[in-house]
Amino acid sequence: MLKKDSKGNLAEVNPLRTRKDSIYQKGTNNIFRISRSKLSTFIDCQRCFYLDRVKGLKEPSMPGWSLNSAVDELLKKEFDEYRKLKKPHPIMVENNLNFIPFDHEQMDKWRDSLKGGISYIDKDTNLEVFGGVDDIWFDKDKKELVVVDYKAQSSNTPVEEISYLSSPFHQGYKLQMDIYVYILREMGFKTSDRVFFLVCNGEKSYDKFDKKLNFTTKLIPYDTDISNIKNTIKEMKSVLESKNIPPINKSCEKCMYLEAGKKFI
Fold first, then answer.
1. Quick check: pTM over 0.85?
2. Which of 40, 71, 137, 244 is the most buried (most CB within 10 A)?
3. CB environment 181-215: b (16+ within 10 A), e (fewer)
4. 202 bridge partner residues
């Protein structure tokens, strides 16, 4: 992907981060913010995480997922209407869930990671872990919060719980929800282990487009596991403070791409 300025002219790429607050300063023990996505990066590849957060090497940019974002935005507006009414959304009724959308004055902030999202400061490491949730529902029976993530896709394969959760492409989705539940509990909220993916599948079986996409929706439950997140955060702090770059992860495409490029050059 080529970088261009606002006039469409080619612009020089700076592969390094310029904001000081995005680069970890060793030995200071100042509060350092770690997004949910960077925590996921650390779990996937410590080397890529280190190069980014300590050395300031930016990943190449990607275009936004505009159709997915449109679905997210419309769903948020739809659920906000039921949030105001304090009534269950039809999909909750359809799935026999005694839920309503959770109403909180910070909801808009919690859903936008750029505004802070949900967050807490880990006292042992001074790392502030944060992320933006799609939605939070309230279980009226158990009096606890339920995290919900919207997922838009288009597949000819029916959306089923076992195949959806076992897909190698969806393991990151589950980790994402583990982290959200962990953060909310650290914030002091009683939060359910069970979360939901609201999967919106764009159907391809229609004969014509007719200026609209038709979606089927399905709730996929997932029982989170937060047992190792605390230890992961401690390990992440140790890596941030390390003088040595973590070894190459041979299962990481980015690591192997960079290494192969160095050899060719």
1. yes
2. 137
3. bbbbebeeeebbebbbbbbbbeeeeeeeeeeebee
4. 215
